[in-house]
Design brief:
The chain has 260 residues and is of the alpha/beta class. The chain has one domain: Vaccinia Virus protein VP39 (Rossmann fold), CATH 3.40.50.150. It has 7 helices and 11 strands. The strands form 3 sheets. Strands 3-2-1-4-5-11-10 form a 7-stranded mixed β-sheet, sandwiched between helices. The longest helix has 15 residues. The structure holds S-adenosylmethionine. The site of S-adenosylmethionine has 20 residues, from loops. One of its GO terms (molecular function) is methyltransferase activity.
Length: 260
């Protein structure tokens, strides 16, 4: 494993597994998974790679959509154990412990499609992950990646604020145009209490990491949170507008170009 590969995810695996469960966290169910399954397109009969698959939350959707085989790759042995156990009776699923940023036998050009959900900001070496995603796909193979929006959702560096004069809720961005390693402490007492690292990179750097490896983006969606303030009152109009207009996640999809 590369230095920092999946750092912190194994100690918090039980917490994450419980948070996500069989059907996904609130954001998975309402926003991320529906977008991912739409954007990956037709996977009937396809071999699909789920890179940084965690405990395999996306796998059932791929199977329901008719995938011939789903291979999950993740650096956390505990999350892979959990996924393996969940799909033990499903011959179409194979789970591997591997570092997405290092070369591996799995990156063999045989996949028709590849996804990576909520992990672009968890890997220490994004160009290497994109290299391996491209290497795993056959030319023309489709990919989807969904991750926290690099412009508006940077832990501890972006916040909501209220402008009383203009009666609007704004998004404040304190830092943006540099790479940041932000330690995230998961909920102590709920099986967490350990640290993971969030790797912030500016938008151009993220998109270039994909493009540089021949992963050509043909569709981008900026996904809003489904949650709305229940508070009511004077601010609710401004809060609702902000929730509708400031994206939470960035979703990209496209195809692996043929090598020139
Ligand atoms: C936020 S979780 C997302 C998991 C899953 N895709 C989901 O949506 O629930 C991030 C995942 O990235 C994995 N990860 C982080 N760095 C990795 C690396 N270098 N190689 C493989 N997996 C990695 C972690 O182990 C963790 O499962």
């Amino acid at each position: 494993m590369a230095k920092n590969a999946g750092k912190g995810w194994d100690p918090v695996a039980a917490w994450y597994d419980q948070l996500v469960g069989k059907k996904g966290s609130d954001y998975h169910r309402h926003v991320v998974l529906p977008a991912a399954i739409e954007m990956i397109g037709n996977v009937r009969g396809a071999r699909v790679l789920d890179l940084c698959c965690g405990q395999g939350v996306f796998v059932p959707l791929l199977l329901d959509a008719g995938a011939k085989e789903v291979v999950g790759v993740d650096a956390s042995p505990r999350l892979i154990d959990s996924a393996t156990e969940r799909f033990t009776d499903e011959p179409r699923v194979r789970m591997l412990v591997a570092d997405a940023c290092l070369d591996g036998d799995w990156a063999d050009g045989s996949f028709d499609a590849a996804v990576s959900l909520m992990a672009v900001h968890d890997v220490p070496d994004l160009p290497a992950m994109c290299h391996n995603m491209a290497a795993a796909l056959r030319p023309g193979g489709r990919f989807v990646a969904i991750f926290m929006h690099p412009c508006f959702r940077i832990p501890r560096q972006t916040h909501w604020g209220w402008d009383e004069g203009r009666k609007l809720q704004y998004r404040r961005v304190d830092r943006y145009g540099v790479d940041l390693e932000i330690p995230i402490v998961t909920h102590p007492g709920k099986g967490g209490g350990s640290e993971t690292i969030f790797y912030h990179r500016p938008l151009g750097e993220v998109l270039t990491a994909f493009g540089a490896e021949g992963l050509a983006i043909s569709e981008t969606r900026e996904l809003m949170s489904h949650r709305r303030s229940q508070a009511g009152g004077a601010r609710s109009k401004g809060e609702h507008r902000a929730a509708r207009e400031f994206p939470m996640f960035l979703a990209i999809a496209g195809t692996r170009l043929s090598p020139t």
